[in-house]
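Exercise 7.
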Amino acid sequence: MKSAVETLSPTRVKFTVEVGFDELQPSVAAAYRKVAQQVRIPGFRPGKVPPPIIDRRIGRGFVLEQAVNDAIPDFYTKAVEEADVAVLAQPQIEVTKFEDGEGLTFTAEVDVRPKIELPDPEEITVTVDPAEVAEADVDAELAALADRFATLSPVERPARRGDFVTIDMVLTLDGEELEDGSVTGASYEVGSGQLVEGLDEALEGLAVDQSAEFDAPLAGPYEGRVARARVTVRAVREKSTPALDDAFAKQASEFDTLDELRADVRERLRRVRRIQQVVQARERLVDTLLEKLDIPLPERLVENEIAARAERLRRFTDARGITVQEYLARQGETAEQHDAHTRADVEREMRVQFLLDTVVARYELSLEEAEFTDYLIQRATRLGVNPDDYANQLVRTNTVPLAVADALRGKALAYLLQHVRVVDPQGEPVVLEGTPEPAAIGGQ
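Solution. The predicted structure, written as tokens, is:
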């Protein structure tokens, strides 16, 4: 067999494969055996019909066609292995020459993963936010905690910002009541900015059983239109927040003093920020690499993925008895905006995949069984399913290779993070939380 590869684009190649007739003989013999099992000819048992009889009754051309069709996948696979390219889809195959006794020539066009020249990760610097916790941050967290222990007491005065009021509200548009915007007996915090624009200003100064009307700009399917709103106050309650002292610390936590509670809050905030540093580092590293690299995409794969997502959205809306247009309107998005966002998401995700796949190949990363088990447990936890059930689903749907590839991409990103320089805004080095030493990843 001889094969040649022609680069049609950075993401598509064309193989030309020539196969000698002697190399086709095993496939020809197998095709004769297969046909012999299928045909019924008087005087011969199934599987025992000799080739000359098959040639006379069925035709040698039919057998050779089966032999070629059966042989091409193996020769194509061998050509791909020799060319050392990463194919991304099924090939478009065309037999360009085949003569009995003279051999076979066929071509195969296929999308391939683009070649990416990775920069040296040790020359890349990623900046993350500092993990230090200011006293103001601790104060804000304690204030939020105290707010959860606040009590509400009825008052006989007009409502003001920070009060909780019970309201009835009716929205009308063109003289018709909007059911989605009307509420009865709803609890609302004055000044929270929820429900509809203009409500907070209308409520301030209203006493029980007093009403006010105002114009309320609408969103969602009514974007750009203004409704007329009428709100009536049914009750006013004042919020009382407990003092931040030792008594509160005992009430709200397992600690006896406010100082102990402050120290615990400070440490929890620090841990959260250390985790956020890891997330930031990942995102900013990927952004940095995408900015540095020109990663071409196979347009067919992009369009196929966009079409697949459109079909999933259609099934989602059909199951809920609404149209795609109605769903997008509720999300405050036009069809054009949705299509643009979908394309941008698909293209970015595909570029990230190609980038991380290249890292896996470049540094010869592999997965240990324990690493893949951890990946499955984490994925199952995020999906809210049993890990064993999730693993069985992957087996049933033949998607284990996709899961392995995804896990390897995660390992590739972890590998890069161990080799780039991570600093805070002042340029001081940052050691990311829970990351192993570089030598522990991929045997490097």
